[in-house]
Automatic annotation (TrEMBL):
This is ATP-dependent nuclease, subunit B. GO terms for biological process: DNA recombination; DNA repair. One of its GO terms (molecular function) is helicase activity. Keywords: ATP-binding, DNA damage, DNA repair, DNA-binding, Exonuclease, Helicase, Hydrolase, Nuclease, Nucleotide-binding. InterPro entries: P-loop_NTPase. SUPFAM superfamilies: P-loop containing nucleoside triphosphate hydrolases. Gene3D superfamilies: P-loop containing nucleotide triphosphate hydrolases.
Length: 124
């Protein structure tokens, strides 16, 4: 892993671009410390969090659900709410979700067609 990180740095990546996720930090803490020190790689052990709470896990799960359930409204909205697919304000996501429910837009065929949101007399 340390060699791969050094290679990424050689390619122009910065330390802040690299994140290592571990399932059980305590099992690897000493090994990582020794190896990263040897390769002069700074490291920090953040607080333990459940992997299931990570936004990337939610993103992948939502993406898979969008495909499996053929664009159910809640799956599309959950995908957008992860924050990893576009840069949307929460207010805009809430409005979008309300419109999808109001206009009964669900299913791959409806999402494949262009649709316009008319809100307060304006096309959005």
């Amino acid at each position: 892993m340390a060699k791969a990180i050094r290679h990424k740095l050689y390619q122009g990546y910065r330390y802040k671009d690299i994140l290592v996720l571990l399932g059980d930090v305590d099992s690897y803490r000493l090994q990582i410390g020794k190896i990263f020190d040897k390769y002069d790689i700074p490291y920090y052990f953040g607080k333990a969090e459940s992997m299931s709470d990570h936004p990337l896990v939610h993103f992948i799960d939502s993406l898979e659900r969008v495909k499996r359930y053929r664009f159910r409204t809640e799956d599309v909205v959950n995908l957008l709410k992860t924050g990893l697919y576009g840069n949307f304000k929460q207010e805009d996501l809430d409005l979008f979700e309300q419109y999808l429910i109001y206009a009964d837009i669900k299913g791959q065929s409806k999402f494949a067609k262009e649709f316009t949101i008319v809100y307060k007399g304006k096309n959005i």
